[in-house]
């Protein structure tokens, strides 16, 4: 093979790979409006990767709805998909470090808490680098990042957020008590609920929920028959005080989030109030972020108190 062919082959291979990937129309439009002839390819490649990752972040495989207010805030402060992605990535890394230092229960900002999972922060950084290498193997750098505007956090507004903050504090306080709240029977009940959620199909779980609604006020034996829980666990649920009921509900949500996220997403969609303004939408986004924070806090306390592996 001639020397010119050896030199040209990497460039043509890179072009073919880029061309074979679907560059989103939103990215093309952004680059047409903002890029010049010299940086147009870079704008397209960086934008395509950022567009894909930003979309991934709000799915249940990553942060879910908790990521939405952060993505929205980063998008409002930055004028490109690439810079928006850098903003989100650095926000997630900062949130994870904050959580490592003080724990999730002491993070006042619901948006920061909602994206503070340490393992997830490491995962998205690794996947970002892998995606770059996979889609554009001959791209040696990612130019976005130096001029991006960082995430500044969300202010806690309204009764809804304050209520959820109280829920987090309650769950944390309950878990620190001397066993009266997370007792052996509580741990056993939570374990049974976790096994049910993991082992039953979405259709079976929805049927159980419908049956419980139809048998409101049922005794422990009936609840056990409907759900498959032991009578002792059903009795614990019936006798639960407000704090225990909150913990049980939060753990149910946490278990559903892992195994049947669509059920939880449908619940949130059905419960959400219509929003008419950007401010109201941001308030709703923060409420969702804090809701997921409640679930995460409850699961952490369950794993710790009940010695779950």
Per-chain topology:
Blueprint: H1 3-20, H2 25-34, H3 40-57, H4 68-77, H5 81-102, H6 110-114, H7 118-135, H8 158-176, H9 184-199, H10 202-214, H11 220-227, H12 231-239, H13 242-259, H14 261-271, H15 278-305
Helix pairs in contact: 2-3, 3-5, 4-5, 5-7, 8-13, 8-15, 9-12, 9-13, 11-12, 13-14, 13-15
Please indicate the count of domains. 2
Radius of gyration: 24 Å
Largest sheet: none
Shape: elongated
Termini, distance in Å?
A: 58 Å
Strand content: under 5%
Give the tally of β-strands.
Answer: 0
> Residue share in helices?
over 70%
Structural class: mainly alpha
Following the backbone from N to C, one meets helices and strands in this order, namely HHHHHHHHHHHHHHH
Mean pLDDT: 78
**Count of DSSP helices?**
15
- Low-pLDDT stretches are 1-20, 156-165, 172-180, 273-283
Explain what you see.
The chain contains 15 helices and no strands. With 309 residues, it is mainly alpha-helical. α8 packs across α13. 33% of the residues are buried. Mean pLDDT is 78; it is low at 1-20, 156-165, 172-180 and 273-283.
């Amino acid at each position: 093979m001639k020397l010119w062919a050896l030199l040209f082959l990497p460039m043509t291979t890179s072009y073919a790979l880029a061309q074979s990937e679907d560059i989103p129309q939103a990215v093309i439009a952004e680059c047409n409006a903002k890029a010049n002839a010299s940086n147009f390819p870079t704008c397209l490649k960086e934008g395509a990767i950022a567009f894909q990752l930003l979309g991934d972040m709000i799915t249940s495989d990553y942060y879910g709805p908790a990521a939405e207010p952060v993505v929205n805030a980063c998008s409002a402060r930055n004028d490109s998909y690439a810079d928006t992605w850098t903003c989100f990535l650095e926000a997630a890394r900062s949130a994870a470090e904050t959580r490592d230092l003080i724990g999730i229960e002491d993070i006042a900002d619901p948006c920061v808490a909602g994206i503070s999972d340490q393992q997830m922060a490491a995962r998205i950084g690794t996947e970002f680098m892998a995606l770059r290498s996979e889609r554009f193997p001959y791209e040696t750098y990612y130019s976005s990042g130096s001029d991006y505007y960082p995430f500044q956090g969300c202010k806690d507004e309204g009764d809804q957020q304050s209520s959820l903050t109280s829920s987090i504090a309650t769950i944390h306080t309950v878990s620190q008590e001397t066993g009266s709240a997370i007792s052996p029977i509580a741990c056993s009940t939570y374990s049974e609920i976790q096994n049910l959620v993991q082992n039953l199909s979405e259709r079976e779980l929805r049927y159980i929920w419908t049956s419980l609604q139809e048998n409101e006020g049922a005794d422990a034996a009936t609840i056990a028959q409907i759900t498959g829980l032991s009578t002792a666990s059903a009795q614990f649920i019936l006798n639960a005080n407000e704090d225990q009921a909150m913990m049980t509900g939060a753990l149910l949500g946490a278990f559903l989030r892992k195994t049947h996220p669509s059920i939880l997403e449908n619940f949130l969609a059905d419960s959400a109030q219509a929003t008419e303004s950007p401010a109201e939408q941001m308030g709703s986004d923060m409420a969702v972020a804090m809701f997921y924070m409640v679930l995460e806090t409850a699961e952490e306390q369950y794993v710790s108190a009940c010695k779950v592996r």
